[in-house]
Amino acid sequence: MAITPVRTLVAQAKSEITTLPADAVAQAVAAGTALMVDIRDIRELERDGRVPGAFHAPRGMLEFWVDPESPYYKPALGEGRLLVLFCASAWRSALAAKTLQDMGVENVAEMEGGFKGWEAGGHPVER
Q1: Which 3 state secondary structure label does DSSP give 59?
Q2: What residue stretches are annotated with the Rhodanese domain (predicted)?
Q3: Alpha-carbon distance 58 to 80, whole Å?
Q4: Residue 56, Cβ density class (10 Å: 0-12 exposed, 13-18 middle, ≥19 buried)
Q5: CA angle 18-37-94, nearest 5°?
């Protein structure tokens, strides 16, 4: 039995979610209407740096941290702001945004290009 390639899953997810360019994300964060959610592994943050002010929610805990019924719920993820997910290159964030949408989260998007796109666009990074 063949498995569905991850590229196919990512493409399907991207066809069903909102993807925002880094500049638009920066503007929404500055306006207080969005929260950047970094879903990368802690080792990636330590190695590559962080986006100042981004909320770190490891991919493996994201659904638990978003669900108000979960004992792991994080109130910062339920404040009503647009949750803009990002990973390194916008693959995991596409799948995660789709999963949150499937859970019923309406205010979710992913950032085009992920952390690499953010950094390449000249946006601030903490090392």
Answers
A1: helix
A2: 30-127
A3: 20
A4: middle
A5: 35
Of 127, 119, 126, residue with least CA distance to 25:
119
pLDDT tens digits, one per residue of 4-57: 999 999 999 999 999 999 999 999 999 999 999 999 999 999 999 999 999 999
Question: Long-range contacts made by residues 1-7, C-beta under 8 angstroms, separation at least 24?
Answer: 6/91
Tell me the domain boundaries of the chain. 18-120
Q: Compute how many other C-beta atoms are within 10 angstroms of the C-beta atom of residue 61.
A: 14
- Which residue, among 19, 18, 22, 25, has the nearest Cα to 120 in the 3D structure? 22
- Helix axes of 92-103 and 6-14: crossing angle, nearest 10 degrees: 60
Segment (H or E) for 12 = helix 6-14
Per-residue pLDDT band for 74 (boundaries 50, 70, 90) equals very high
Query: CA-to-CA distance for 123 and 52, rounded, in angstroms?
Result: 10
Rounded-to-integer distance, Cα 110 and Cα 120, Å = 17
